[in-house]
Structure formats: structure tokens, C-alpha cells
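One chain shown below:
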Amino acid sequence: MVGGHIDGHVSGLLVYRDSGHFESLQRILRGLTVETCSVRTCKEAREIIPLYKPHVIFTESTLADGSWASILDMAESAEAPINVIVVGSHPNTQHYLSVMERGAYDFIAPPFEHDSLNFILRSAVLNARYRRENSSPVAVDS
């Protein structure tokens, strides 16, 4: 990490309906030199994940056609490892625990602070990169 930014290309997918706090999240991510792409539905996320191959997905808890759990399922079945960070509208310990138990990378809520978001993002991206570099292709018997 140099100058508060993660070295190399970092891509993030934001999946949300009309949530205003995603605008501030996206602004901070851009300041951290994260290339972002936004979609509004699980269907759109399913279509773009294989093309975009994000390192991290930030998703709202409830979407028009699913939820954070649907996005987590997509990330778990993606070709390249992806970490999912669930974004709540406010801090909620019970929701945090259920999200983490199910396998999300983290749960965050506004207000987003640059330094803490930078730490979470850096950790999630480095983890995804490590898993991508160390995943071995499955051998297929002929």
C-alpha cells in the first residue's frame, strides 16, 4: 500500500437499490483508486460478475430481487474469489453476527470513515488476491 492506496488494479462492485449512503461509499472508494461498477439487482450482478471479476462486492441488505445472501451465493460460486461486504443502513449487532456467520467478509454502516473503510477494503482485496493466486485449478479426468 502506497500513499493510502492499494497497489495495483482494484475493482469493486456495488449492488444497491436507491440507497443514498452508497453515494458517499462510492466517493470514498474512488478516492482510494478503486474502479467501481454499480448495479441495482441480483440479476444484473449475476450477469456482470463473470465479466467484471471484482475483488470485492459491497451490497445492500435487501435488494429488489433478493438480498445480501443471494449476492454472497454468487460470490461463492464465482470463478475468481470475491469478498462480500454487506452495507447496512445503521449499525446492527444482530445483523452483523448473521452476516458474518453466513460467510460475508464484513458488515459496515454509515457514516463511512475514510481510514476504517480503507483498512477493511485493503484487507478484503489482499485476501481476495491471495485466494486468487493460490487457488489451484480442479483437475478433470478424461
